[in-house]
Amino acid sequence: MRFLIVLAFVSTCLAVAIEPLSHGTDKGTDSLLEHIPRNSDHESVAVVRSGVQASDATLEKRLDDIQVPYNNPNPKNLIMAGVVVSFTMAGQWVKQGGSSVYRYVCKSIVFQNPTARHKVVTLIANGAALLENQPLSEHRVFGQGAPEGGFGETIEIVVGNRN
């Protein structure tokens, strides 16, 4: 019983003695500990709106002719039916005319599902289906590397809910 009384007394003393943390940007605070709002740069994310088709009680979003980023080191992300589509760029030397120039090309496409629903993703590039109804469970990330000749200029992406 004495132990519990001493423990309660010590806990109370510590609670009173310690100053509360102040969240702010006052002088003396570390700027690395500031709250960074989610999506602080609204230009870095593009929300894609396309026709919603209903088939067998599942929603499906399809977007044709998505321009594959070229010579852009930080392209915008796309959001389709809750799935975030990111383009991973890599710098490489490309022959242009009679000389070589340094350009950024799309190395891979990454699909991130931050929702609590199972999704399926289809990716079509150069007329071939690189992914066909690829399951993407909730809170998962999946990437698809570029094929031998690259993704081409445009791709098609279909995102649907999985039953």
What does this molecule look like?
Residues 1-15 form the signal peptide. Keywords: Signal. This protein has one helix at residues 2-17, and strands at 45-47, 52-55, 58-67, 77-80, 83-96, 99-113, 119-125, 128-136, 140-145, 154-161. It is mainly beta. Helices cover 10% and strands 49% of the residues. The protein has one helix and ten strands. The strands form two sheets. Strands 1-4-5-6-9 form a five-stranded mixed β-sheet, with no helix packed on it. A hairpin with a 2-residue loop joins strand 5 and strand 6 (99-113). The protein has a domain at 55-161: Immunoglobulin-like, CATH 2.60.40.
Radius of gyration, whole Å: 25 Å
| Low-confidence spans | 52-57
The residue-averaged pLDDT reads 79
| Tally of DSSP helical segments | 1
Largest sheet: 5 strands, mixed
Q: How much helicity do the residues have?
A: under 10%
Structural class of the secondary elements? mainly beta
Please give the order of strands in the largest beta sheet: 1-4-5-6-9
Give the CATH level 1 class of the domain at 55-161.
Answer: Mainly Beta
Question: CA-to-CA gap between the ends?
Answer: 58 Å
SSE string: HEEEEEEEEEE
User: Which topology of the domain at 55-161 does CATH recognise?
Assistant: Immunoglobulin-like
Query: How much of the residues is beta strand, in percent?
Result: over 45%
Signal peptide: 1-15
Keywords: Signal
